[in-house]
């Protein structure tokens, strides 16, 4: 990560006055003595040794006794960090303080911190600002209470740890660059803004957020963990995640937004809960796991994944899929129930053929409004899985839904054309394309035989002599001759002239033959199919 190879040239320009050593309080003198020796300045150690409770960081209230015991000033820390001779006296172990109480806002913005900085188990009543600063090592605020953390644009060559921390109001880290990881595990945070960050290692955000968690356009070179997190909304749109995205068991009162996210590995949503999940435009190189996931609405438009594990167990079990879905241009290779041993190819939960037509009809029917692309993708997935018959059934369902949509929209021409396509050739799909044209041909042949049998036929126009047909085979040949376009089976058939209503019937008989041939040609050309030829 080149942006962390060297420290920034900016320096702290905020006016402040260093604290001379003679004005330091007792806790400050003691803390400096421990830091100078390379020890941890642990204000809680004497309390624990006496069997007492350490500083309570779950509240913003600090009693007078605690102020006298562990209260230090923000300017004290600034003095030992930036002023001679104290900054040169800090050992390589850096500043490590536990159990301190700071009343003022700690300002370390636009500064270069060349030491390890750990302020753990402490209370910062007015918060901490380190925006646009550069930390050569780690920054740790574990188990501390802060009113607010402003770390926008901060560069940390190590890691940032906020494990078990409590930040009552805003946590702002816009544009931060962290070469190590960022850890918020089991902390409690208010409104949290972490957009446009660059994180060189993994990010552990398994915490409680009373407000919105914003990770918009953040880049993680490794995985992002949000398993079991409790939030109002989560926005990770535009993020780039070099490992996996783990959201298993996350509980959201509002929306989960993963628009335009790139994930190099898998996305795990097992047991996640949200009112709406917008996963549109994602590119996932691995699989999507969503067993036991509970969403009221899920958008997967223009999303690309390898395999979807939806938790389907029984024949008519819909798995995780909610009543409202959008899957237009949703590209996937397989739909599976639950992950198992890859060698067990015949396992029912992993066999697409176990998803009956009812399941696909309900699943694809949950996508509104109707578009043919989800049906095409489903058919393609089934064909590639070795189920061409089921793929044609899906395409047939698509045409059925398109016909119903045309009726609702009062597109009468389209509706009538599709009605004829269905009735004559079954949309040119599957067994219907073989059975329906043959059935109509047999019916028309039988009707032609019945009409022509025993009918008077003009055999001599000059003498107006007639003959009555009595041969069934001759009637069959006549009916077939009039039904087949262009083809002539014999001159005696073509020269026959019927009289009366039979003459008009055979005109219609010939027109039906032409119509049936045209529809069969359309079916062979794939005109009726939403996905083209199989």
Could you characterize what this model shows?
By secondary structure, the protein is α/β, with parallel strands linked by helices. The longest helix is centred in the last third of the chain and has 25 residues. The N terminus is likely disordered.
State the main characteristics.
534 residues, alpha/beta, 13-stranded parallel β-sheet, eleven-stranded parallel β-sheet, 13 helices
Strand content: 15-25%
What is the count of DSSP helices, taking H or I runs of 4+ residues?
13
Q: Tell me, briefly, the overall form.
A: rod-shaped
N-end to C-end Cα span: 49 Å
The total of beta strands comes to 44
Could you report the average pLDDT, rounded to the nearest whole number?
A: 84
Low-confidence stretches: 1-13, 341-350
How would you characterize the largest beta sheet?
Answer: 13 strands, parallel
Give helix % range.
25-40%
* Class by alpha and beta content: alpha/beta
- Rg, rounded, reads 38 Å
| Biggest sheet, spatial arrangement of strands | 1-2-6-10-14-18-22-26-30-34-37-39-41
């Amino acid at each position: 990560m080149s942006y962390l190879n060297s420290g920034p040239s900016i320096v702290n320009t905020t006016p402040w006055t260093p604290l001379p050593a003679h004005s330091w309080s007792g806790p400050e003198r003691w803390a400096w003595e421990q830091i100078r020796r390379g020890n941890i300045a642990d204000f809680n150690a004497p309390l624990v040794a006496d069997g007492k409770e350490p500083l309570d960081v779950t509240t913003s209230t600090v009693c007078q006794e605690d102020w006298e015991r562990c209260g230090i000033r923000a300017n004290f820390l600034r003095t030992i960090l930036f002023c001679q001779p104290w900054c040169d006296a800090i050992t390589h172990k850096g500043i490590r303080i536990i159990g301190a109480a700071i009343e003022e806002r700690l300002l370390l913005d636009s500064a270069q911190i060349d030491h390890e900085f750990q302020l753990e188990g402490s209370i910062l009543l007015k918060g901490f600002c380190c925006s646009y600063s550069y930390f050569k090592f780690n920054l740790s605020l574990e188990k501390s209470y802060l009113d607010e953390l402003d770390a926008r644009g901060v560069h940390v060559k190590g890691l940032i740890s906020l494990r078990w921390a409590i930040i009552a109001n805003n946590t702002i880290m816009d544009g931060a660059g962290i070469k190590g990881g960022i850890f918020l595990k089991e902390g409690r945070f208010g409104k949290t803004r972490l957009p446009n960050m660059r994180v060189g290692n993994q990010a552990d955000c398994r915490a409680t957020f009373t407000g919105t968690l914003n990770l918009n356009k953040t880049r993680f070179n490794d995985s992002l963990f949000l398993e079991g997190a409790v939030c109002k909304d989560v926005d990770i749109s535009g993020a780039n995640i070099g490992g996996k995205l783990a959201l298993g068991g996350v509980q959201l009162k509002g929306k989960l937004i993963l628009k335009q996210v790139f994930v190099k590995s898998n996305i795990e949503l097992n047991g996640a809960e949200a009112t709406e999940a917008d996963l549109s435009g994602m590119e996932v190189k691995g699989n999507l796991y969503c067993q036991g996931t509970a969403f009221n609405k899920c958008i997967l438009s223009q999303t690309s994944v390898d395999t979807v594990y939806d938790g389907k167990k029984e024949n008519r079990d819909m798995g995780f899929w909610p009543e409202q879905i959008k899957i237009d241009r949703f590209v996937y290779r397989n739909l599976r129930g639950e992950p198992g041993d890859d060698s067990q190819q015949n396992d029912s939960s992993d066999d697409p053929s176990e998803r009956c037509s009812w399941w696909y009809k309900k699943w694809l029917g949950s996508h509104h409004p109707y578009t043919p692309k989800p049906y095409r993708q489903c058919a393609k997935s089934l064909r590639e899985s070795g189920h061409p018959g089921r793929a044609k059934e899906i395409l047939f369902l698509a045409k059925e839904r398109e016909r119903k949509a045309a009726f609702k929209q009062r597109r009468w021409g389209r509706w009538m054309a599709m009605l004829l396509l269905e009735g004559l050739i079954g949309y040119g799909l599957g067994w219907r394309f073989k059975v329906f044209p043959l059935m109509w041909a047999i019916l028309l042949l039988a009707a032609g035989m019945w009409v022509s049998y025993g009918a008077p036929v003009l055999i001599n126009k000059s003498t107006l002599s007639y003959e009555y047909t009595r041969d069934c085979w001759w009637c069959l040949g006549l009916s077939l001759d009039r039904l087949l376009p262009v083809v002539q089976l014999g001159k005696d058939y073509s020269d026959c002239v019927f009289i009366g209503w039979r003459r008009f019937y055979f005109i219609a008989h010939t027109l039906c033959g032409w119509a049936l041939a045209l529809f069969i040609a359309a079916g062979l050309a794939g005109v009726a199919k939403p996905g083209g030829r199989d």
